[in-house]
Amino acid sequence: MKILIACQSAANQGDRAIADYLIRQLSALGHEIVLSTTQPALWKTGLAADISVIGMGYWSPNSIIRKPFIGGLLRGLTRWLWNPILFADLMAKHGGHPLCRMVSSRFIEAVRDADLVIVTGGHHITSFREKNALFQFTYDIGLVQIFAGRYILWSQTVGPLTFTSARAKAFIKGLLLQAECVYLRDESSMICAAETVGTCANTTRTCDSVFGFGMADYPSLSDREKKVGVSIFDGLKKAFAAYETIAAMLDRYASDGYTIEFFRMEYGDAEADSIRRVISLMKTHPRITVHPFMTSTEEHLCAVASCRCFIGYKTHSVIMALTTATPLIAIAYHPKTADFMHDFGLDAYVLPDETLRTEQALRCIDLLEQNLAAVHQTEREIAREMAQRVQNDVYEMVRHD
Description:
Layout (H helix, E strand, L loop, with lengths): L1 E7 L4 H16 L3 E6 L14 E3 L13 H26 L4 H6 L1 H9 L2 E5 L15 H12 L3 E6 L9 H13 L2 E4 L2 H11 L5 E3 L19 E6 L12 H13 L3 E5 L5 H13 L6 E4 L5 H9 L1 E6 L2 H9 L4 E5 L2 H9 L6 E3 L5 H13 L1 H28 L2
Parallel strand pairs: 1-2, 1-4, 2-3, 4-5, 5-6, 6-7, 8-9, 8-11, 9-10, 11-12, 12-13
C-alpha cells in the first residue's frame, strides 16, 4: 500500500521522532512511504528508510524570504491577507479554485496517488497560536479531506479550540468528522474533541508515537552519570517568565554536583537564544553541554537516557524522558503535559508554568531526589506497556489492507 504521511514538522525534534517511528513501522510492514514535511531539506539525514520526501501543500509569501525584518513584514501579510484568501477558497470551493490548485499542486497529486493518508501528530488542530485554528497544518488537512480516498488523524492533540467564525468552526469540525479514524494521544484532547464534534464513533485513544521507542534497553539508574537534562520552551511570551525559576533549579542541581545538559528541540536561532538566556540567569558555573538539533532519534534518546534526571519544558522532551525511564520534573505550558505525566502516575512532578514559583520548584526537586529509584522503575514498566500499545495501534490502523 502507498501511504502518504502528511503534516510533519521537520524543525521540531519531537515531530521528527514521530515520523521516524511511523516510517520504521510502516516500512517494516512492506508499505511504500511518502513524507510531506515543512522543510524537506532538513531530512537530508536522519531517515530510517529510503522514502520520498516532498513539501507541504501550504505555501505563503514568507516562505521565500528568511531575513528577519522583511520576513516579519511578510508574516504579517500572510496572517492578515494571504491566509484569509487561501482559506476562503479552500472552505468555500472545496479546493477547486485555481489558487489552491496552483500553490498546492504537487501535494494534491501526492494525496490523490496515496492509498491512505496518515496525518501525523502532535499538536496541529488548535487555535493555541493561530486564530480560528487556520494555519499551515489545518490547510493541508483540508486538502487531504477533499482529495484523499482515505485519511486518518494519527496520535493528535486537539485543542484548545476557540472560534470567532462559524465557518471556521464548521471547517475544523469537518476535518475531524470526515476522518476514517481520529487517534488522540491525551485525555484533554478527548474532552475537546467531544465538545467540538460531540460523541463520535471514529475517535479513539492512543499514545504518542515516541512512546513506541520504549521497548529499548535503556540504562538503569545506577549506571547513569550525575547529569540533569533540560529543555526550554519559547513558543509563547509566557515562557520567558519561567526562565528565572529554571535557572534556580539548575543552580540547585549544580550545587549538588550535577552537570547540566541542554537538549535542542527546535531548529533555528530562537531556542538557542533562550538557552543562553537561562544560562545567563544562573548563579553557579557548572559544566554545561548543549546537544545539537540535528541528531538522530536514537542519538537523542540515548543522550536523554544517560541523564539521571530531567527538567522538561517541551512536550516531547517530557515524552522522551518518560520513554527512557529518566526521572523528571515537567513544566507544563499546556494540559497535555500533565496528561502524559498522569498516565505514569507522576502528577506530583508537574509544575504549570503560569503558576511556577522558585520555592515550589525546589521542593519538587527534593521530592524527586527522594524517590528517584521508584520513579525510574515506574517509568520503565509503563513505557514498555505504552510501546506495545503504540505498535498494536499502528498495526491496527493499516491491518485491514
